[in-house]
Amino acid sequence: MQEVNPKETTRAYAFDMWMKAPMPMVTLIKTLDVSRLRRISRRRGLKFNMTMCWCIGKAATQIKEFHMLPVGDKLMQYDTIAVNTIVANRDGEVSSCDIPYSDNLDKFNADYLRLTRQVAENCENHDITDSMVIGTSALAQYNIDGAVGMYSGIFNNPFMIWGRYRRNWFKTYLTVSFQFHHTQMDGAHAARFLDYLQKEINNF
Fold first, then answer.
1. Max alpha carbon distance in the chain (Å)?
2. Is residue 160 within 8 Å of 26, Cβ to Cβ?
3. CA dihedral sign, ordered 110, 112, 113, 115
4. For position 151, what pLDDT does the model report?
5. pLDDT value for 169
6. pLDDT tens, 35-64?
7. What is the enclosing helix (H) or strand (E) of 70?
8. Is the pLDDT at 148 greater than 90, yes or no?
9. What's the N-to-C CA distance of the chain in angstroms?
């Protein structure tokens, strides 16, 4: 992780326009076909949420804007990406868990299981501070049509939310919302990311 001069990046104009905006976050909502992901997850005994997180990380690594993030009043560049998930802990509350992204699904799965179990047991967040973290929240027990995250003014990380997937004949669909800071990327980058996410799900 290192600070970069915004004027020497492709985000120079966006940095000037959106860093001090009272509400710099943008949200896109898209319905994904997750039929293949659900089928293979069940066949291989993998957690559906883990496979979603892995596909999110894989799609994000293909968009260079994901490697930059406004932090405070600076623009930071990261070499690595992590995916965050919310974990129900043993106290009946929720904790936050960052999982380092790896192209190797088996490694990512092992890290996911180990770290989420650790967080659930000790009720302490697992934070990775030297990676660009994509937040996720799966409300898998509930049917929702979309969600818009809040802007805290502290965390500018991209964030995804989804609810229960829906089955329709032989297809399974999942509606996701993707929130991002306009300094980090434009709508076209975010839409391309969601297209890449669908492609990674199809190729899983």
1. 51
2. no
3. positive
4. 79
5. 86
6. 999 999 999 999 999 999 999 999 999 999
7. strand 68-71
8. no
9. 30
Burial class of residue 20 (count of CB atoms within 10 Å of its CB; 0-12, 13-18, 19+): exposed
Q: Which pLDDT belongs to residue 80? A: 97
Q: Return the number of other C-beta atoms located less than 10 Å from residue 56's C-beta.
A: 24
Find, among 181, 183, 186, 136, the residue nearest to 163 by Cα. Answer: 136
Cβ-count burial of 55 within 10 angstroms (0-12 exposed, 13-18 middle, 19+ buried)?
buried
Q: Which residues contact 39 (CB under 8 A, 6 or more apart)?
A: none
Supply 12's token pair.
Answer: 């120079």
Mean pLDDT score, 51-78: 97
Q: How far apart (Å, rounded) are the C-alpha atoms in residues 29 and 73?
A: 28
The Cβ-side half-sphere exposure at 58, using a 13 Å CA radius, reads: 20
**Measured in whole angstroms, how far is the alpha carbon of residue 107 from the centre of its chain?**
18
2: pLDDT confidence band, cut at 50, 70 and 90?
very high
Q: 171 pLDDT exceeds 90? A: yes
Output the pLDDT for position 155. Answer: 86
Torsion of CA 22, 182, 69, 156, to 10 degrees: 40
Model pTM score:
0.95
3-state helix, strand, coil in the chain (%, to 5): 35, 30, 35
